Amino acid sequence: MGDDVRIGLLVPDKISVAAIQGAELAICEANKKGSLNGKNFRLVIRSMEGPWGTGSKQAVDLIFNEKVWVLLGSHDGRNAHLVEQAATKSIVVMVSAWSADPTLSQAFVPWFYNCVPNDLQQAETLSKEIFDIRKLKSFAVIYDQEYDSGQALSSMLRVLKADNRPVPLQLSYEDYQDSIQGLLDKIIGSKAGCVLLFCSPKVSFRLFTLVRNAKPDIPVFGTLSVLNEDELTESELKCFDEGFQVTSSEWNSQKCRDFIRDYNEKYGIHPGMVAAYAYDGMGLIIEAARRAGSNDRARIQKALSEITFSGITGNISFDARGNRSDNYRLVSIGNGLPRDALKD
User: Fold this and answer.
1) pLDDT classification of 242: cutoffs 50, 70, 90
2) Which 3 state secondary structure label does DSSP give 167?
3) Whose CA, among 67, 152, 187, 278, lies 20 to 30 Å from 244?
């Protein structure tokens, strides 16, 4: 096991291929550029599918049996906490490439880094867009009972309270799933200036389509987690091209186009958000490992804390708590990725 640089990847289940492919592509490109002290980079994958707690066991297996240098996670917030606990006890760096749960960084663990904007950062961006840029007076939030949806909603309410903004109309999808027309009537009757979707990808797709058909002119925003290409078909993702906006940094257009080309050549499909963030997460881990020069965990942690990595999703650097530091904005979507990043 000492003949290669092993990096662990944890994914939700066996059908979650986007993160695997994004990370795998980054590994292949890194090995073409050259080894690290004669050692090639190697991806070691574990699925978190199974009873509650499986994620923690898989993280421990990667750390102690596979001897990975760093853990990369592409999963929901609940599982991210399990991995973070295992990584912290073992003093191994964990990089999150999908969960936006802000409580992951609130424990102030120096071994945790997140390369996606967390829910508080997304909420701040949404609040600014709604009230400062669009000058809207009110809005509606539709949420479901998923853990990540709850984190997104609580983060939004926290930001609104801190900024003394109006509380939105809050509608639970489960209360209306058997009478969607009643939910639509609530939104239309409230005269909300826009709609926020804090729901799972499939539910968000259904709601976005219905809201668009009922009220085509109303802006619809959501969280990054909605655009999960492992859970939505290509045609379902394509539907979000019609006016859906999410929080994003300034992507590197040239690197994004190169990534789409290389990903398509290798896997025969168009990449989405999950693949893109996994690709960048793996890329910055590899860069940190090269800077550290060894599997010394403290040196890898120091390299990550000081890094400014030029990725396809923009420049990635971190604050003292491991949150991604950036200036965020809302962007429109094209084929599951920021539309601006696809332009020549």
Assistant:
1) confident
2) coil
3) 278
SS3 190: helix
Say if pTM beats, i.e. exceeds, 0.85.
Answer: yes
Average pLDDT over residues 60-76: 90
Specify whether domain 4-117+251-326 bears CATH 3.40.50.2300: yes
* Domain locations in the chain as residue ranges: 4-117+251-326, 119-248
As a CATH number, domain 119-248 is 3.40.50.2300
**CA nearest to 71, candidates 45, 50, 53:** 45
Which residues, in sequence order, are CB contacts of 10 under 8 Å at separation 6+?
Answer: 46, 47, 48, 55, 58, 59, 62, 71, 72, 73, 74, 75, 79, 83
Q: Kindly report, residue by residue over 263-286, the tens digit of the pLDDT.
A: 999 999 999 999 999 999 999 999
Rounded Cα distance between 26 and 37, Å, is 18
Cα atoms in the 13 Å half-sphere on the side-chain side of 6: 16
Kindly give, in sequence order, each residue whose CB lies less than 8 Å from that of residue 307, ignoring residues fewer than 6 positions away.
Answer: 284, 287, 288, 291, 316, 317, 318
Q: Is residue 336 over pLDDT 80?
A: yes
